[in-house]
Write a structure and sequence with these properties.
Blueprint (H helix, E strand, L loop, with lengths): L2 H29 L5 H26 L10
Length: about 70
């Protein structure tokens, strides 16, 4: 797997997470607590964040992603 594809996948996850966060803010302002759209958007955001963390951990564990530290 190329480095650019791995970076693209992580950036795509982050963009979708930000999109869900923005939609939750929009629903919070528009609905004024009358529907569960805000809760659903925040739930999707949390699920995507957990999936991204698990994907990165799995990538490091399988050797697909090579972690590097600052100053090594």
């Amino acid at each position: 797997m190329s480095d650019s594809l791995k970076t693209l996948i992580v950036v795509a996850f982050l963009l979708v997470i930000l999109w869900n966060l923005g939609s939750a803010l929009y629903y919070l302002m528009v609905d004024r607590g009358e529907s569960k759209r805000t809760v659903n958007a925040l739930t999707r955001r949390i699920g995507l964040s957990v999936a991204l963390i698990l994907l990165v951990v799995l990538g490091i564990w399988t050797g697909v992603i090579q972690p590097h530290g600052v100053g090594r």
